[in-house]
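Internal tracking record. Fields below are filled automatically when a chain is submitted to the structure queue. Please do not edit lines marked as system-generated. If the sequence contains nonstandard residues, flag them in the REMARKS field before resubmitting.
Queue: standard
Priority: normal
Entity type: single polypeptide chain
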Amino acid sequence: MQNQRREFLKKALVGAAATATASSLLANEKPSKVQGSNGVVVGHSPKKEILYKKTSHWREYYSVAS
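SYSTEM-GENERATED OUTPUT FOLLOWS
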């Protein structure tokens, strides 16, 4: 009887420790930078965004489109 109680307490403490660790890890996550930006994540990127290169095809497209 005494041994069963000890085994139960060991398992319960291990489970509680695992739960506490997991919950503390989730609570310590950094908040995302989505606040006030309509869902767009604002960050810093080392890359420069290039949407297109000026070529004869683009010039032709823009002249027809406008």
